[in-house]
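Quick one, T. Sequence first:
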Amino acid sequence: MLPPTTESLIARVTTGRRAERLVAILDLVTEHGTIGLTELSDTLGISAATARRDLSDLADQNLLLRTHGGASALERRRELPVVLRDTRFQEAKRAIARAMLRRLPSERHVVALGGGTTTASVARALANHRDITVVTNSLTIANLLSGYAGVRLAMTGGFLRPESLELVGALAESTFNAVNVGTAILGADGVSASAGVTTHDETEARTNRAMVAKAQRTVVVADGSKIGTVALAQIADAAEMELLITDSSADPAELERLRTAGVQIVIADEE
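Structure tokens:
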């Protein structure tokens, strides 16, 4: 069972439109620092009652501070839950997923899929693969793959991170250590030549490092907003990436630095 706060948010975000609105509210609060209920309603074209409900749900997730008549940004906002992150850069993520699928063998193959919204797009693209084994620590990805006839699914154990819906820690690492993987497919919060592949959580990074260690090759799938960004904890350095699949919004200068470091680059929406 999911932790109560995560379960509550997932239950209430019943449409993609509402998820996009919640992300827009967070962006507005971050931009202004403090925003009033009337300004929020007028900017987004929603009723005051809808704005109040949205602010209350976001405050319950510790993503903003509810105030009398509005909301304020937290000094240090919590990581955006995966249910909300999935609304961003959807076209780019679908193009990246298609490009990843073209680079997987059509015959029997073992893939390790880390958590994240871009890797979830890759999981959806596997629907028509005839014979693939996927090892994952992501509840989201396991749920997506559970109905695919050509996919054999293996899940790790571990402790649940409610923000990403991933299983992490020693139990998850021991599963990755026990299997041989053809391709590890990683999402990321940041990708750069200097820091490599990074994420917000150190325990999640350590679990993903175990995945990379047993893979014959490592592919990173990340939309352009992640390129040049450095997050807290390193999953892999640039030398461990064989391939980065991104989109045309990525910083060209950073992509060139990654090429110089030996990383092959695919711009998915230009293929």
